Amino acid sequence: MDYMTLPTDASVQLDNITVPGCLLGQDQALVSTNLTYNEGKISAPCADATVVDMKGAMVFPAFVDMHTHLDKGHIWPRTPNPTGSFEGAINAVGTDKPGRWDDVDLPPRMTFSLKCAYAHGTRAIRTHLDQFSPEEDVSWTIFSALRDEWAGRIDLQAACLSNIDMVEDPENFTKVADLVARHDGVLGGLTTPSDRLPSQLETFFAAAQDRGMAVDFHVDETLDPSVNTLKDIAQCVLDHGFDMPVVVGHLCSLSTMTEDDAMATLDLVAKAGLNVVSLPMCNLYLQDRHWARTPRNRGITLVHEMKSRGISVSFASDNTRDPFYAYGDMDMLEVMRETTRIGHLDHSDPDWTNAFLTNPAAACGFAAPSLEPGAPADLVICRAREWTELFARPQADRIVLRAGKQIDRTLPDYSELDHLMRTA
């Protein structure tokens, strides 16, 4: 039997599989083991299970993608980034949004990304939603409908995205916070340097605390070493005892600060218990881009130094075929492969797999990925026996199991979105 087509029996034993040791509570980089699933759940070995020799295939629980932008996805064909820069992305999205991101445009684009993520083996996603005025916003209603529609396939969360200076308009900010809370969302924001930032953060955290909401920030997405709003966020959490989960993403400027400033900031982040999500593919694309000049900096934040301090580090997709990132396919195996190369995760600690599974699930409150008996048999299986085989190829022939059933991995055709790609 070709193991890439698994039997449909209720009980199946996968013999001779390879699993990252950290997923089994072991110190080894990779472990050879067996795994049985019965009636859609991982189980103890069963005498009547159909046994399949997997020939060393690598097995992962289905992935968690904790920082995406489903509302921006796939607008590149109609509104590309003319310069490839961060400023070019901001301007392009600002041009595309008005009058277009509605109940005709958003659902098919967001659904397209969800189809891709599902086919690639992702089971949980947090997306950021650009904030319109509460009176004009349709994205939250659309998101909630999609969350219901995809229940059982992909668990969905959303965080609003607006500059933190929105708190300076108390009436509007209250409406935004209430809107997000009504949709069981996460209070999200973009921090920018300002003398007012500490008081803005205090107001922001108070609104989240009052509504029982977690928070999620876009932070210091620049290579300017003087920008360090991360320090303000950590200090505010410590000063005011905010006890809901806090996620901070990007943190590019840490890579260009002086060593003393960067390490002091990381010590504060560790003390505050912040969860970090790094977006290496997008940051590599946008940061240090200049016409006809080779980039000198990668834009990735200081993930090794964070991990050594016990800071929870995760990696995620970020943008997909939009002005912030022209590529991507909501594929966490691609994220894992490219992050390993960009961030030199190889020749390092053997448990970086947690940054694509266990850490993001804990940071967002998703169910913990597990290969233990009783966990759902939601698995990604690759025809690779060790890391270099896994990362040398895109694993286009991977198997994805959901509740023990092999899913159809056919990806949606880009032509499905052609009717939305009229230029502005």
TrEMBL record:
GO terms for biological process: cytosine catabolic process. Gene3D superfamilies: Metal-dependent hydrolases, Urease, subunit C, domain 1. Transmembrane segments: none annotated. One of its GO terms (molecular function) is cytosine deaminase activity. Its EC number is 3.5.4.1. Keywords: Hydrolase. The keyword Transport does not apply. Residues 51-101, 198-404 form the Amidohydrolase domain. The keyword Hydrolase applies. This is Cytosine deaminase. It comes from Flavimaricola marinus.
